[in-house]
Here is the input.
Amino acid sequence: MSIAINQKTCVGCKKCLSVCPGTLIKLNQEGKAFIKYPKDCWGCSSCIKECQAKAIDFYLGADIGGRGSRMQVEMKADQVIWKITETDGTIHVIEINPKASNQY
Ligand code: SF4
Ligand code: SF4
Here is the structure.
């Protein structure tokens, strides 16, 4: 699993650079963050949690059976909201109740 950084919403604060345990994120010449070594990303989500601009998404690539879509995760009350945006712009929203998901 890797991440994708939205260059339009990145404000260049460098917080993601400082929390990435693999030092995988760099700033480009325009002062925007990009992931330099996407294959080395193990999806720990530290950078995603740290980004106040919400410029970082999970990238659902072929390595995990994805097709290049991007996923954002939000917490709302007791719900976890997964918002998946496919490459053609189609959006899927999945709501999960973490308490109920552990019941069987
Ligand atoms: S934390 Fe977000 S806004 Fe700040 S540099 Fe990284 S991607 Fe850009
Ligand atoms: S998900 Fe973790 S390993 Fe991957 S770029 Fe972000 S902080 Fe680094």
Remarks:
- The beta strands are 2-5, 25-27, 33-35, 56-60, 69-76, 79-85, 91-96.
- The chain has three helices and seven strands.
- Residues 15-19 form the longest helix (5 residues).
